[in-house]
Design a protein that fits this description.
With about 210 residues, this protein is an all-alpha fold. Helices cover about 80% and strands about 0% of the residues. The longest helix has 29 residues, at about 110-140.
Length: about 210
């Protein structure tokens, strides 16, 4: 297996979950159905802060030097992302709790687990989130804000590429690749389960309307 096979396997295994996370219902779940500019920006800022905390924690205790450097770089990127969103919001926000996905990620100790979970599973979810935020601001005729999130989406994809490149050198056995696939898939499942739990709590069906 290589990283192209890994990503394909994860996206195939979690196709339904990723498709539903690509729905406009995602913002309903993230904002508790408060679909206004401030609520969307607050949810986005909280997401960037949560990611910053995860990668900062990993950068401090990661034993693999190249991975530690990458985690530090991504933590810095997430901080810059947060600052750009906070500028749009016009104020700072308090750091959020970890939530199910980041709570699980912060418990990962292995380099393979961290790269696969944080830079594949999480970024596949983040890509969908950024896309929905871009769509929200396009619909609001706020192209400046939409452009910011387009750039954040591009930078997150670039971080994913760096993570996959490193994962290709870290995975040495078939067991390593199996671990990477399992962790990345589970991260997506956690994000999806959280999404569905919130929607069901609102009385909203998370399944698409056909």
């Amino acid at each position: 297996m290589d990283t192209a096979d890994l990503r394909s396997a994860v996206e195939t295994a979690k196709e339904t979950e990723l498709d539903r996370l690509s729905s406009s219902k995602l913002l309903l779940a993230l904002t508790d159905a408060e679909l206004d500019r401030e609520s969307v920006l607050r949810a986005a800022a909280a997401s960037e802060l949560a990611a910053r905390e995860t990668f900062s924690t990993w950068a401090d205790d990661e034993e693999h030097d190249a991975a530690a450097d990458l985690f530090a770089d991504v933590a810095d990127q997430e901080q810059r992302h947060y600052e750009r969103v906070a500028d749009l919001l016009g104020e700072e926000i308090e750091p959020p709790g970890s939530g199910p996905m980041h709570g699980y990620l912060r418990e990962r100790a292995g380099t393979v687990d961290r790269l696969a979970g944080g830079l594949l599973g999480r970024t596949l979810v983040s890509d969908r989130t950024h896309l929905q935020v871009v769509s929200f601001f396009v619909n609001e005729a706020d192209e400046a804000a939409a452009d910011v999130f387009r750039e954040l989406r591009t930078e997150t994809r670039e971080a994913q590429d760096r993570g996959l490149d490193l994962l290709d050198t870290v995975c040495e056995t078939e067991e390593d690749w199996e671990t990477a696939e399992a962790v990345a898939s589970y991260v997506i499942q956690l994000a999806y389960d959280d999404y569905t739990d919130v929607l069901v709590g609102m009385g909203v069906d998370p399944k698409p309307i056909c």
